[in-house]
Each structure stands twice: as structure tokens, then as C-alpha cells.
Amino acid sequence: MILKEFKPKDSHKLCLIICVTKSYEEAVLISKSLLINRFAACISIFPKIESIYLWKDRIEETKETLLLIKTINENQSNVFEEIKKNHSYEIPEIISIIPNKVEFNYLNWVFNIVKKNN
């Protein structure tokens, strides 16, 4: 059986946004805010990751919590702004990735959750 490939328009493509927070509690606060506003359909939380980075000319080692936020491309700005509004870092790490392929039913589910915001 040949499956027909679905090509969503750019604004409806899945977007993964990565963000780290200083605590699990802050991650949950940001996640709930994104979900309540329907800026995201799902957020995976990875607590207790270890980050090593340069900050103000010093090597820092910090335990952080990683968020993997699933939304659509046209919601990127809303997600970025909502994170910045609720984030404690001076310069929060917020990175957007557009995947090449996404399973159709999953993409449809994400779109139907977040489109109610648009």
C-alpha cells in the first residue's frame, strides 16, 4: 500500500521548542501556562539534567530541567514570549527546531489542540 504524503503549509508544520529552567517547579509553571493558553499541545519535562556552560567568563555547572515543547510553527512567537514572561533566567535558552517528518496522526492531534488558539 502506498501512503500519500501530507505536506502541511509552513505555518502548520510541527515545531519543537527546547528550553531549560532552573527548577522542576519553574518548568511545570511554564508548561501549564503554555497549555492553558493553547500555545502548545504537549510538553515533556526532563528533570535533573546537568548543564555545563560559560557565564560571565566562568565555567558553571548547574542542575536544570529541560522542556521539550510540541507546537506548530505559527505559535513560535507566542511560546517564546510566554516562556520569557515566566522564566527566571536573564537570558533563557529557547531553541526552535522544525522536524523533517512527523507522523500524520500526531501532527493532526497537535494542530487540533493549538489551532483553537488561532
Automatic annotation (TrEMBL):
The family this protein is said to belong to: Belongs to the CutA family.
Q: Pfam families from the xrefs?
A: CutA1
GO molecular-function term, one example from the UniProt record: copper ion binding
Which SUPFAM superfamilies does the annotation name?
GlnB-like
Q: Which domain of life is it from?
A: Bacteria
Q: Which InterPro entries match?
A: Ion_tolerance_CutA, N-reg_PII-like_a/b, N-reg_PII/ATP_PRibTrfase_C
Q: Which GO terms describe its biological process?
A: response to metal ion
What is the protein name for this chain?
Putative divalent-cation tolerance protein CutA
What species was this sequence derived from?
A: Candidatus Providencia siddallii
